[in-house]
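Practice problem: predict the structure.
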Amino acid sequence: MNERRIFERVIDLCQVQSSSNALNKSLARLAGAAGFDHYAYFRAHPNDNFVATDYPLEWQRLYFARSYVTLDPVVTTAKRGTQVFRWSVDDVRPRVCRELRRFYTEAADFGLKTGLSVSVSAGFGRFAILTFTSSSLSSARGCIAGEISGLGITAAAFLHSRMRNMEHLESNCTPALNARELACLKWSSEGKTMLEIADILDITYTCVRRNLKRAMDKLGVCKLSQATAAATRRLLI
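Answer:
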């Protein structure tokens, strides 16, 4: 499937799927049909990162735990403005610093070796990225111009708008967090560590970690700061 058809399908899916879960599943199927292994939609902001993806969960956790968003060349490229581009980890891995080389190596270990990405402005200092990744190496790289670029930017803008609308609508559907999960989240939002929360609530560190993990799963996020932000937006804490 060529780039034109991929971007046309993204636009189609944004108009027919009625929930973020259905849209995510459809984008994952589109990635496979187009010869990719994974897809990701990422909205970036220093205080409000949001991701919808079928990347391996272990990689998602590693990515945010090690703050790879500050290193990720796809994110760095996206910061420069709206564009459509292909990339490959092996094109630049030998020429970068040790820290960035580790990022490339770990990404490749999870099968994220090459990709097709589109970056668009998301307003108020934010930007959004649509990416399809593959474990197969490809020599194709660099920016894509012309009509295909315009179509890709339109598709990414469609997706961003649809994701934002779904996020707003679904935020009114309160997930069933129990009192202990909410208490742990609230104290975390106040800057308390897990050990401090355990002491405040008179429970074990393991219990705090387990409750925060359950809260993150229910809120559909993979980072604690995202969980507290999501819970705050939904007026849960």
